[in-house]
Amino acid sequence: MRNRSRILRAAPLLIAGLTWLAPLAAIPADGVASSGAVAVVSQTVDDVLAILNDPNLTSEARRSRIEQVAYDRFDFKTMSQLVIARHWRSFSPEQRKEFIREFKAFLSRTYGDRIDRYSNERVEIVGERPAPRGDVKVMTRIVGGEYEGAEVEYRLRERDGTWRVIDVKVEGISLVINYRDQFKALLAREGPEGLLEQLKKKNAEVGGKAEST
User: Fold this and answer.
1) Residue 29: pLDDT band with limits 50, 70, 90
2) Cα gap 118→130, rounded to integer Å
3) What is the CA radius of gyration of the chain?
4) Is residue 39 part of a domain?
5) How many domains does the chain have?
6) 141 in a domain, yes or no?
7) pTM given for the model
8) For helices 76-84 and 93-111, what crossing angle results, to 10°?
9) Any domain includes 212
10) 17 lies in which domain range?
């Protein structure tokens, strides 16, 4: 749980990756070419910033629109497979669909209340490098604000000609690995049914709190 706590504390750094957290303006550093993967990260951040700066939107409307950007730019199916890892084959086709749906909702509801913490930070794209399976890692640095100089890395994978984010690493902590570590004991003990039940319960708890505020 310690890793999850660190990720939650670093939530304002995550916007270029988990776009519903706290939008930042992306700017390329000198000499960084705008490849397909870099362009996706930059465009995602710019889209979120435009939503956050729209004075005609309520907080709930902003969150909803930012979620839609995230759903379009993230490969939640691949993220889910990476989180579940070797246990994925023990999920039925219907359980896989259910996990993707519940995990996506879990991430959105867990981080969504941080949407109003934007304080004019920017994201500087400082480089990219190849990763296994043809993936690309895009490295960024926070400019300004409380997290000045912090590094956030986004891993993207191309499928059918489109680059999508499959992992975000904040302060050296991978979102995928963090949740894989959290879920593996429960999966070993209670299987897919137990994990899905816990996710549904957590989503209901967070959703209830949001409705009561």
Assistant:
1) very low
2) 31
3) 17
4) yes
5) 1
6) yes
7) 0.80
8) 100
9) no
10) 2-204
Secondary structure (DSSP) of the chain: -HHHHHHHHTGGG-TTTSTTS---EEEEPTT----HHHHHHHHHHHHHHHHHT-TT--HHHHHHHHHHHHHHHB-HHHHHHHHHGGGGGGS-HHHHHHHHHHHHHHHHHHHGGGGGG--S-EEEEEEEEE-GGG-EEEEEEEESSTTTT-EEEEEEEEETTEEEEEEEEETTEEHHHHHHHHHHHHHHHHHHHHHHHHHHHHHHHHHHHHHH-
Q: CATH no. for residue 159?
A: 3.10.450.710
Model confidence band, residue 15 (pLDDT cutoffs 50, 70, 90): very low
Q: Is residue 213 in a domain? A: no
* Residue 18: partners with Cβ closer than 8 Å, 6 or more residues away: 70, 107, 111, 168, 175
Question: 116 with 21: CB under 8 angstroms?
Answer: no
Rounded to an integer, the average pLDDT of 104-120 is 70
Mean pLDDT score of the chain: 79
Block residue for tokens 């907080």: 59
> Letter for the amino acid at 99?
F
